[in-house]
Amino acid sequence: MSKIQKFFKGGGGGSGYSKGKGKGGPTPQEALARLRETEEMLTKKQEYLEARVAKELALAKKHGTRDKRAALQALKRKKRYEKQLSQIDGTLSTIEFQREALENSHTNTEVFKNMGYAAQAMKKVHENMDLDKIDDMMQDITEQQDIAQEITEALTRRVADDFDEDELLAELEELEQEELDNKMKNVHLPSVPATSLPSQPASSKKRAEDDEDMKQLAAWAS
């Protein structure tokens, strides 16, 4: 049996609380409050002893070799106070460890309790669910999905063509020729003007005569 099982079982051997004492024992919050009060009390005593140590040390220095007996008594008291300080340090460390362990135990208890609530909630949710029915339902869903896929493929399957491709091309050419003929009918050519074109201007006629003279002069010079 583990230590945790012994703790929850209780009453085993000479250690641990009995079931009766466990039921009437303090709550974790109460125990933590007591431990914190003890820590505060020991901390105050620690401050008091530190002040006494400083005071006795000052007395020993004051008396020195002039009053050797008084100086030795002061040092003895200082040693006793330092010993008490050491004991308080150990006690504070123990209390701190116990307080942290108790806080962790309280946290673990709350976590365990909440996890138990969650487990009960999950059990309640699942109590009306039958695994065999779930398997049957999933099989039905899979079958229906397969049927839907087959229906989709059947609806989108391409129908086989039974037409002659040459006949379709010939018909297409006829349609294109008909469209071209319609376009040509709608084309309007510009009409020929009824009046004659104007005669060549005088300046153009003179330029032509000058060009003829230049040709004759070039022929004579050659």
TrEMBL record:
Q: Which UniProt keywords apply?
A: Coiled coil, Cytoplasm, Endosome, Membrane, Protein transport, Transport
The record, for Pfam families, names: Snf7
The record's annotation in InterPro entries points to: Snf7_fam (IPR005024)
Q: Which GO terms describe its biological process?
A: autophagosome maturation; late endosome to lysosome transport; late endosome to vacuole transport via multivesicular body sorting pathway; midbody abscission; mitotic cytokinesis checkpoint signaling; mitotic metaphase chromosome alignment; negative regulation of cytokinesis; nuclear membrane reassembly
Kindly list the GO CC terms recorded for this protein: amphisome membrane; cytoplasmic side of plasma membrane; cytosol; ESCRT III complex; Flemming body; kinetochore; kinetochore microtubule; lysosomal membrane
A single MF term (Gene Ontology): protein homodimerization activity
Q: Where is this region: Disordered?
A: 1-29, 180-222
Indicate where this protein is primarily found.
Answer: cytoplasm
Which segments show compositional bias classed as Polar residues? 193-203
Q: Which family does it belong to?
A: Belongs to the SNF7 family.
Name of the protein in its database record: Charged multivesicular body protein 4C
Q: Which organism is it from?
A: Pseudonaja textilis (Eastern brown snake)
Gene name per UniProt: CHMP4C
